[in-house]
Structure formats: structure tokens, C-alpha cells
Write a structure and sequence with these properties.
With 187 residues, the protein is α+β, with helices and mostly antiparallel strands. 22% of the residues lie in helices and 48% in strands. The chain has 6 helices and 9 strands. The protein has a 9-stranded antiparallel sheet with strand order 1-2-3-4-5-6-7-8-9. The radius of gyration is 19 Å and the shape is globular.
Length: 187
Amino acid sequence: HINTQQGTPLPITKIAQAYGHLKIKNKRAHLNIGGAGLVFSDEIVGLLLPVLGNTLTKFDMDAIIENWPVYKEQGQAFWMENEGRLVSDHWALHWGRADITGTFDLQFEDGLPKGVVYVKVKDMVALLEGLEQAGLLPSASLLQIKTVISAAPTDDQGRQVFPFTLHEGTVKFGFITLFQFARPGQN
């Protein structure tokens, strides 16, 4: 357990396992990170507690950091503007009803990520129903969302695949803008 003697309690109260490896070969760094049994304080999880619980069962990611010498010698900001690229053929997160894996291929333009993130969700309907039961998703929206996700392709492991495109500071699912990043230097 992780306890504080004074001040605000930490958001993570326990870590059963954590690991990280960085292997450098030529201009690439292979990053492998992960862990299991991360217990978050109930306050941090907040309204998602009934859906996710407070324990992140498992997370892991294998990624390649392209142009590693530039990142190491010049720093992240310079790397992002000079052929910085982050590619993952596998990342995974299992937390309560959320059982998610995926891949991504990201580059950067004007300090903002661009590329594609594939999110593969096991039993998306159960996750959505949990969000509805927790009062985080209006019942009226649930049917509409179920209709939209029913059209999503399924991979060979039965996971629904959702591609998210990042471009010019936006995250889109198809033509729908889901999120807008603040441009560097803006508040």
C-alpha cells in the first residue's frame, strides 16, 4: 500500500506489479511498459466507480519510438517537430467492465498528434449499460449509441474495432469530432 504521512492522499493507493523496459537499437527505442493491480482512491475514480471499480486489473503497451537519438539529445518538443513518431502494435487495458486493446501510429504536426488509434472493445454493450446504470449515460442515448456501434466491424477475437483519426488538433470517429486539443501555447 502507498500511504502519505501528510497532505492530500495519492490517487494510486496500491500497485501489485509494474514494469518498464526500454531497448535501443539504431534509431529506434522499443518501449514495453505495463502493470497490474493498480488500486485508485475512490475519489479519483468518482462516478465511474460502479462501472470500473477502483482496481485497474491490467495495462500494457509495446511501442516503438522512432528517431530516438533526436528525442534523447534534443528533447520531446524538438523530436515532435522533427520526424518524431510513436507506433504501437499492441496496448491493452482491463479495468472493471472495460476490456480494451488496440494499436496506434502517431506523428506530430505543430505540436499536435496526428495519425490513427484503433480501439478494440470486448463487450461494448455491457460497458455502455454499466455507464447507463451509473447515471453517466442517459437512457435515451443508449439506444442510439447501440445502433451506431452495431455497425462497427469485429476482429477475430470478437472485439468491436473503432478507428479514431487525429488530425489538426481534433480526434474524430468517422466524421464526428469527439475532442479538440488545445494548441501548444494556448490556454
